[in-house]
Design brief:
The protein is mainly beta and 245 residues long. The protein has 2 domains: 40-129, Immunoglobulin-like; 135-243, no CATH class. It has one helix at 2-17; strands spanning 40-44, 54-58, 65-75, 79-88, 92-96, 106-114, 120-129, 135-141, 147-149, 151-157, 160-168, 171-178, 186-190, 196-200, 203-216, 220-229, 235-243. Strands 8, 9, 10, 11, 12, 13, 14, 15, 16 and 17 form a 10-stranded antiparallel β-sheet that branches. A 4-stranded antiparallel β-sheet has the order 4-3-6-7, with no helix packed on it. The relative contact order is 0.12.
């Protein structure tokens, strides 16, 4: 008689609640974390200050679909806790940054990827880029390494033109300073005081003399250069191409 009453009470509870809670089912299914093992920043476009930048991502471990990407921008331009949505198709996807107002080296760091099921994976994918899309190549002889820089920037203040090519790892620079530049093509002699500098890590070799020739000014400033360092052991000659100042 007691067992019958207990059974009837249990049936009443089930009828009232509608179901027995098993404790093992979640609405919407399981949350799966995104597999970011092969996620990378494939490329970042160069920019003119005042423009946004296009960032291309690559991953052959993430499934096709929509992902929320969190990132920070530091360096010459600063934006923190940025969020955007990337649609990944055929292992690649892209997004645009906010407008970058300042010239100079800028770094983008991806901090988190979240998939459509709410699974989030923390990461630290870093890539630096610049407003310059120029190129400077140089052959250094007697002795010395060759020089190739993709961060090349020209600035003009009055009649003083500076063309600087920077290679970041290891840090090396070639800086060409022309004090009497008049916009246009032609050859310009560097002052004997050493207005072309080639930096080898740990040393600075000011030029003794040299010549810069501007071959074009639009749409890019292009030309050639040649100079000899003060110790007369290094001759540098090469070419440059960059946005006109």
């Amino acid at each position: 008689m007691v067992m019958r009453k207990v059974l009837m009470l249990w049936v009443a509870i089930v009828l009232i609640t509608g179901a027995v809670n098993t404790g093992c089912t979640l609405a919407g299914g399981d949350i799966v974390l995104p597999n970011i093992a092969n996620l990378s920043i494939q490329s970042i476009s160069t920019f003119v200050p005042g423009d946004l930048v296009q960032v291309s991502l690559f991953s052959n471990t993430l499934l096709p679909g929509s992902y929320e990407v969190q990132y920070n921008i530091s360096g010459a331009n600063v934006f923190t806790s940025q969020t955007t949505v990337v649609n990944l198709v055929n292992d690649s996807g892209s997004f645009s940054t906010p407008i970058l107002a300042n010239a100079g080296i800028t770094t983008l760091t991806i901090t988190e990827i979240t998939n459509s099921s709410g699974g989030a994976a923390s990461t630290n994918i870093v890539k630096s880029f610049s407003d310059s899309d120029g190129l400077m190549t140089s052959a250094i002889s007697l002795p010395g390494p060759g020089f190739t820089a993709q961060d090349v920037k020209a600035t003009l203040t009055g009649s003083s033109l500076t063309i600087k090519g920077t290679y970041w790892s290891p840090l090396q620079t070639i800086t060409l300073n022309i004090d009497n530049y008049t916009p246009g093509t032609g050859s310009y002699t560097l002052n004997a005081g050493g207005n072309a500098i080639y930096d080898i890590p740990g040393t600075t070799d000011n030029s003794a003399y040299g010549v810069v020739t501007i071959t074009a000014t639009s749409p890019l400033l292009t030309g050639t250069f040649s100079f000899t360092c003060k110790d007369s052991t290094r001759l540098s000659s090469g070419t440059f191409s960059c946005a006109a100042p």
